[in-house]
Each structure stands twice: as C-alpha cells, then as structure tokens.
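S.,

Sequence below, as promised.
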Amino acid sequence: MSDLTLLILRLVFLAVLWVFVFAVVYALRSDLFGQKVRRQTAEGAASASSPFAAAPVAAPNLVEATEPIHNIPSAPPPPAAPVRDTSPPAGNSPARRLVITSGPKEGLEIELPTEQLAIGRSSESGLVIRDDYTSTHHARLMLWNDGWVVQDLDSTNGTFLDGQRVTLPTPVPLNSTVTIGTTSFELRR
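The prediction came back faster than expected:
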C-alpha cells in the first residue's frame, strides 16, 4: 500500500471518529439540557391552537378489521382490547388536584393549573421528577373538553396509564394511575 493511500485512510478514519464523538456529545447535551426551544411565529401559533395539533388523533372506540390468517387454521383470533369509556361524566367537574401515590414524593398533592402541567426533570416543569428514568421534558397534562389528557413528549422510557404505554394524547379518568419513571400519580377532585 502506498504512503498516500495510507495517509488518506488515516484521515478518513479520524474524520469518522470525530463524527461519532460529536454525535455522543450532542446526545448527552440534549438528554441533560433538553431540546432547543424554538420561537413560534404568529401563523404557527394559530395552527397549534388545539392541544392535538402536533399529534395524530385516532377515532375513539373503533375496532380495526383484520384479515383472517388462512395458512394457520387452528390459530385463535387475537383477543379484543377492552373498550373503556374514558370521557368525563356529563355534569361533573374535571379533576382539581394531582396526588402522587408512589415514588420519592409519595403523598404530595398539588393543585392542577387551569390549562396544562409540564412533567419532567427540568426545573421549568410544573411537576419536577428527578430520577434516572424521567426525561427532561417527559410528558404533559392538558385540560381539554372538561377532562384531563396526558401526552408523552417522546420520552425515552415512556408514560403509562394504568399499565398501558401512552403513544397518543389519552384522556385520564379520575383515580387512574399514571406512571412516569419511578413515580405514579392519580388525578382527583
């Protein structure tokens, strides 16, 4: 191998090594300090007036039809997920307080704000949870149609409602357990 080829291979290897170093530093920075906050223009603010503007919303209580499996005649059909009406009862007021039922802050009760509550490790969050399993901006609770909705903010370890992972904004019934990291809480009147 010629000296020129060896020099070029060394420089390419060094460049690839630095790309990996910068990728690791960026990942650590975004995990420790969160994503950069971008200012919203007037047009963007108008289009994001709904709390579900950034996330697709599935129609409630719909069962998706699937094709039967023809090559496995003895396969039982998949079990249907239990359908639960998660809409708030008519005439009842939404939850007013959040009660932590397990975790380092067990027993803590906080009054829910009028619109939304940010949850995460960030000191800017309304509910600060400092553990290794909570992201900087982990989730948020939003008041929508006289009921509270939980939205996971693309957290690493997920947000769970009664043991089911939340992928879309999901209504939170009263006294249902929401788990974020090692902390669980319920919404109560």
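The helical segments are 3-33, 42-47.

Coffee later?
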